[in-house]
Design brief:
Length: 384
């Protein structure tokens, strides 16, 4: 999230979601509502199949890395569903190849997950379902939650909540049931991340990224990698910490408690105001990060950076192996926050999907972009 939001807007959005959820057909899971195409008004309900599980798409990089990226497609999503419910504030994305659907996590105002179809065919994406995130029978959400990272894993949604420097709005790792979006578990961040005098997460600088970190050894469970947007107050400027949430061998991530361990840090670009908004696995031992800086009155800088994965348990900061300026290649200047492998283009080229958070601002928009890595036929050296 780049800017604060007006509380009245959040209240109205919550009421709209409750009304829409009450009107949903009884065949849907409680709280999940089918939607027709937002552009054409109410239509037939979306598919009733179970929500997609974690299915990782492979990520292709430019080869050589200096070849860079190409903006293949940009489009703007609607700001209202066919039912009139406001949508936006997209902070995380997950493309699922198995059913060609896109999950977008919204941070307005207590969190919701939307599912979209139609992107793979090159047409206008269709909003299929919208599920508000809610308190469970044994777990209550904080009065305000700022969901910024999303990983579908073990039939559940894992969400990083950025929080603030207050007990009323803590930064947490949250686990939700699918498909109804009820809260199953919540875990506080370790002591170094907790707010205190001169230490802890910066205000509005908490965990912005959450990604699935595949296991390197057969039989091991994957883990979750969380990243702060801004440096912790006690850390050197210009670097953001990583936190790995893992399970012991034989644990079921759907029921077992994850344990956090430090995973080093990543260097930010030189200059004030840079933050890390999302991360992806980019092959064994590599991470692809989305970086953002906003300067008044209305100047956005957006970059991708390729990093080596820091060693588990370390506090060292990894420098980027390569960086790419996305505004320079034609990406619309906006509040880009989300990364995911995307659907292949019609000619078979792989894509990287980006999504933006409109902050309910008339100066911003709900955007999607597909980038494709440049891989010249006569590139020299091995491709990653």
């Amino acid at each position: 999230m780049a800017m604060g939001r007006v509380g009245l807007v959040g209240i109205l959005w919550s009421l709209a979601l409750l009304c829409a959820g009450a009107a949903a057909p009884g065949s849907m899971a409680p709280g999940s509502m089918p939607l027709g195409s937002p552009a054409s008004g109410p239509g037939t309900p979306g598919p009733q199949a179970p929500w997609p599980q974690a299915a990782e798409s492979s990520l292709s990089l430019p080869c050589p890395l200096g070849a860079g990226w190409e903006v293949a497609r940009q489009l703007t999503l609607p700001r209202h569903a066919a039912t009139g419910v406001a949508i936006g504030g997209f902070s995380a994305a997950h493309w699922t190849p198995a059913d060609n659907s896109l999950l977008l996590l919204s941070d307005l105002p207590s969190g919701a997950v939307t599912r979209w179809g139609g992107l793979a065919t090159g047409g206008t994406p269709r909003l299929l379902e919208l599920t508000p995130l809610r308190s469970g029978p044994h777990r209550a959400l904080p009065t305000a939650m700022d969901g910024e990272g999303l990983v579908p894993l073990a039939g559940q949604w894992w969400v990083a909540s950025e929080g603030r420097r207050s007990a009323e709005r803590p930064a947490q790792l949250l686990r939700f049931a699918t498909p109804d979006g009820t809260l199953l578990g919540a875990w506080e961040l370790p002591a170094p991340w907790q707010p205190g005098e001169g230490r802890g997460l910066a205000s509005n600088g908490g965990p912005e990224a959450l990604m699935l970190l595949p296991s390197l050894n057969r039989g091991e469970s994957p883990s979750l990698l969380m990243a702060a947007e801004l440096p912790l107050l006690q850390d050197p400027p210009g670097q953001v910490r990583l936190l790995r949430w893992g399970w012991s061998a034989g644990d079921d991530p759907a029921t077992a408690t994850p344990r956090p361990t430090p995973q080093g840090a990543l260097e930010l670009p030189p200059g004030e105001g840079w933050g890390l908004t999302d991360l992806l696995a980019a092959g064994p031992g590599r991470l692809l990060g989305l970086l953002r800086r906003f300067e008044l009155p209305n100047r956005w800088q957006i970059r991708l950076a390729l990093y080596p994965l820091p060693a588990a348990g370390s506090l060292d900061a990894a420098a980027p192996l390569a960086t790419w300026d996305l505004i320079a290649i034609g990406l619309e200047p906006d509040n880009w926050e989300a990364l995911s492998p995307g659907p292949p283009l019609a000619d078979g080229r792989p894509t990287l999907l980006l999504a933006s958070d409109d902050n309910l601002s008339p100066l911003q928009a709900n955007r999607l972009a597909l980038l494709t890595p440049r891989r010249p036929a006569r590139s020299t050296g091995p491709c990653p």
